[in-house]
Write a structure and sequence with these properties.
Elements lengths: L19 H28 L14 H17 L1 H12 L1 H19 L4 H28 L8 H30 L1 H22 L15 H26 L7 H26 L4 H24 L5 H9 E2 L1 E2 L2 E2 L8 H22 L6 H28 L3 E2 L1 H28 L5 H26 L7 H24 L6 H10 L1
Parallel strand pairs: 1-4
Antiparallel strand pairs: 2-3
Length: about 500
């Protein structure tokens, strides 16, 4: 069944775009507000002393806290894959988004209850809910437009703005309440924000029409089989979660994170191998798939550094950074406001640069743009090494070093993230577009887990252990970036279209 809504170019109700965009815009805004607001508190809460007179936390070590953080981030993005499958085959995307939003709200409200058991249960609920919502709401955006509608790219840009508005709200409100009033007040605020998101989605869901409302057409027996195994899987997850919360199953967070990173990498390897060897792809599709594999590796490397903002960089801000502004000590989470602000400022500039270079036939290839993103990431950690060395002499250091770091990382994000998303949409094999989007999120999942492991290693011995880890990360980004430059220079990962054009030119 084709779920594409019968939209026309006359449907311009929301800033020149289909009226359903208003529903998706505000749902995503509130979801991102709750996600980023809670994420800003996560490591800070876990590492705060249990016996603190004000705002006691869980008293975990930096290594354990950041390992849990990495597992959480990895799980959030990994669950997008089964969430997309459920929407495609059983629920439909609209229903999946609604169920996911409700579960996320339940998760944040659970986190607001000051118990260790409810903390991990809340995280699990947020992971499951985000898996159902995150990828599927992006799918609905595309389904609002008829095939060939030139407004779709601008539509995704508007949708992307909701992410930045939501994250800014989360950092402002949730981080302030959590750090200044109480951790669980912050978690509760994230839950209230998500409840707003659920309510407006229910009230304005009708504006979506039939866009991605129904699952894929299939025989009833096949769907019933899928439903049966989904229920069995859900029951198994509930049992495992219950045993874990009751203490019958215990895990070492760092060991689990390491094994989880290996598992995700193996999953990616197996799936890429399957597509290359057994999916019946044409020579042109395999050429395009090789490009996506190269970009996948670059994305994993990038997100392993970018997600440090919620872990090692947050702890550096808390322990070694002067946060006083005109006599007021700002929350640690407010420093992360730099990213959405810089995105709003520089996104149109980067888009203009690429367009200008394209008109001059100098537009960098996709691997080269990814390399630029990684070079910015390497430079950002070079700034952090300077800040660490400065802190070892005179502590605390000024917050400008973290702001410069976030600026460079935002430039890297703008050179890599929207480009990668567009590439996976454009060059994925036609029969596997949805699954290739899952692989894009899988890169974020692997990068998220690695960010927790690397962040834990960085702070194991305080300031003394930060520089060696950050130096390793710099070399890591430079090596992969240079490989991408070589790939671009020699045309190793040209798309089928580029290769055809080259032959024609010759």
């Amino acid at each position: 069944m084709n779920n594409q809504i019968k939209s026309t170019s006359n449907d311009t109700w929301f800033f020149g775009h289909p009226k359903g965009m208003v529903t998706l815009f505000f749902t995503e805004m509130w979801e991102r507000m709750s996600f980023y607001g809670m994420r800003a508190l996560l490591v800070l809460y876990m590492t705060a002393a249990v016996d603190s007179t004000f705002n006691p936390g869980m008293g975990l070590s930096s290594e354990a806290a950041q390992a849990i953080y990495g597992i959480y981030v990895g799980m959030v993005y990994f669950m997008v894959i089964p969430g997309g499958w459920l929407a495609d085959n059983i629920l439909g995307h609209q229903k999946a988004v609604l169920i996911g939003a409700i579960i996320i709200a339940m998760g944040h409200i659970t986190l607001a209850i000051p118990l260790s058991e409810t903390f991990f249960l809340g995280l699990a609920l947020v992971v499951i809910g985000t898996g159902l919502l995150k990828g599927n709401i992006s799918t609905i955006v595309g389904k609002l437009y008829k095939e060939g509608d030139t407004r779709i790219q601008a539509g995704y840009t508007i949708f992307y703005m909701s992410i930045n508005i939501g994250s800014a709200l989360g950092f402002l409100v949730v981080a302030w309440l959590g750090e200044k009033i109480g951790w669980h007040w912050g978690f509760g605020a994230a839950g209230i924000g998500m409840i707003f998101g659920v309510m407006q989605y229910i009230f304005f869901k009708r504006l979506l029409g039939e866009a991605a409302n129904q699952p894929n057409a299939m025989p009833v027996a096949q769907r019933n089989g899928y439903l049966k195994w989904s229920k069995i899987t859900a029951a198994f997850m509930v049992i495992v979660l219950g045993l874990g919360l009751s203490g019958y199953i215990t895990i070492d967070a760092e060991v689990f994170a390491e094994n989880f990173a290996i598992f995700l990498t193996v999953v990616a390897f197996i799936y890429f191998s399957y597509l290359f060897l057994f999916a019946g792809l044409s020579k042109a599709e395999k050429k395009n798939l090789f490009l996506l594999l190269i970009l996948f590796i670059g994305a994993v490397a990038f997100w392993s550094g970018f997600d440090q903002s919620g872990s090692s960089l947050s702890l550096f801000a808390k322990e070694f950074t002067d946060l006083n502004v005109l006599g007021y000590e700002i929350p640690v989470g407010w420093l992360q406001l730099a990213n959405p602000i810089f995105v709003v400022i520089f996104a149109p500039i980067f888009a203009g640069i690429w367009m200008h270079l394209g008109r001059m036939n100098l537009d960098p290839s996709l691997p080269l743009k990814f390399a630029i993103g990684l070079f910015f990431m390497a430079l950002s950690f070079g700034v952090m090494i300077y800040a660490v060395n400065l802190a070892m002499e005179v502590s605390p250091v000024g917050m400008q070093w973290l702001i410069i770091t976030y600026l460079l990382q935002t430039w890297g994000e703008l050179a890599l993230s929207p480009i990668g998303l567009s590439a996976f949409s454009k060059y994925a094999p036609k029969k596997y577009v949805g699954q290739m989007f899952g692989l894009w999120f899988l890169a974020s999942a692997i990068g998220g887990v690695l960010s927790g492991l690397l962040g834990g290693d960085a702070l194991v011995d305080g300031l003394e252990s930060i520089s060696p880890v950050f130096e390793f990360m710099i070399n890591y980004y430079l090596v992969i970036g240079l490989v991408l430059v070589a790939v671009a220079a020699f045309g190793i990962a040209r798309t089928a279209d580029e290769a055809k054009a080259k032959v024609t030119e010759t």
